[in-house]
Amino acid sequence: MQTQTHPLISPTLGTARSLTSFHYGPGGGQKIYIQSSLHADELPGMLVSWALRRKLAALESAGKLRGEVVIVPVPNPIGLNQHLLGHMNGRFETNSAQNFNRNFHDLSALIQPVIEARLGADIDQNRVAVRAAMREALDAQKPETELESQRLALQKLSYDADVVLDLHCDWEAAMHLYTNPDLWTEVEPLARYLDAKASLLALNSVGNPFDEIHSFCWSDLRARFADRFPIPNGSISVTIELRGQRDVSYEFAERDAQGIIEYLTQRGVIDGEAAPMPPLEFAATPLAGAEPIVAPISGVLVFHAQVGRWIDVGDRIADIVDPLTDQVVALNATVAGVMYARHLTRFATAGLEIARVAGAKAFRSGSLLSN
After folding, report:
1. Which residues in the chain land under pLDDT 50?
2. Side-chain half-sphere of 97: how many Cα atoms within 13 Å?
């Protein structure tokens, strides 16, 4: 195992932060990149990374790693240091109000000026050419802020990975994941090993989140050049939502880390026989088919529906109770599917998105993710 340190731009006098990456296994084979808690207050992934590191160290010592696995347990030291009155604000940078999981460099846009002339008839050589162009483009970037340097450091660590796993969680949620529809056949085994209750597919949900900037580039290149040049799925990138913020336990961490190990074994990164794949309880659905359940008024939020459960059209998700007027407003689903996430708060403001149901038919467009 090798440890690398990646300094960030110092935001103020006397302040300096850095990223730490842990590298297991040999180069030359598949490269796997895994990071956790990019939203710094989403801590289940940090514990999963901790469990994964121990498993990988044992596998490396036993000579069972066939490729390189890079773990970044703390990709957002900026967010970890943002506290107000005892509460961490790890989703948005307080200086700029930017979401830590948005606005990564659009790799497709960066390489467009040069890539067409470098592509040819060999799919493997095209993979090499695209990654070389990515590396050159990222090396040319000049970050001006600490946040920009953090984003760039993470992309430089991950741009050439065959598999990118970004470990997050939601407010209160069942295990679910997000990925590119072009990748589903290669991601489905991971969904099975993790017992995902929802698998949400989107080519471009808008905003350049970390997982999408890896896979979208390859999909975009195929859309542009597939009639002339063979383009592979050069990055199998997935956001894994490890249930809810309060689901931090050794039991969950062990289960989830082992699910990832089984997936890497199934892919041939780890020498051995993977466990039989469990059934997938619910089929993958388009992210554009997910229904946001929105509170029309303010009041006390009382949930009826539980995360991870199937919801039929018309089922009651929650009530909003106004204790001043005695008004009770029922919020019902208009699509059928799994309710995969709901808000942690129990007081709703008007317009608050309080839950999401994974419908099978796409009906939304534009920005598909929560802020």
Report:
1. none
2. 1
| Gyration radius from the chain CA atoms | 21
Q: Answer for the pair 206, 222: CB distance below 8 angstroms, yes or no.
A: no
Instruction: Choose among 108, 27, 15: nearest CA to 65.
Output: 27
Q: Write the DSSP assignment of 247-258 as a string of letters.
A: ---HHHHHHHHH
Distance CA(305)–CA(332), nearest Å, equals 10
Rounded Cα distance between 339 and 292, Å, is 10
Cβ neighbourhood burial of 140 (10 Å; 0-12, 13-18, 19+): exposed
CA dist., res. 253 & res. 317, Å (int): 29
- Farthest CA pair distance, the chain: 70
Distances (CA, A) of 60 to 49, 260, 264: 16, 16, 13
8 A C-beta contact, residue 244 and residue 307: yes
Residues 186 and 174 sit within 8 Å (Cβ to Cβ) = no
pLDDT of residue 370: 79
Which domains does the chain possess? 2-266 (3.40.630.10), 285-359 (2.40.50.100)
Q: What is the pLDDT of residue 137?
A: 98
Residue 150, both tokens: 């953090």
Q: Are 337 and 359 in contact (CB under 8 A)?
A: yes
3-state secondary structure of 175: coil
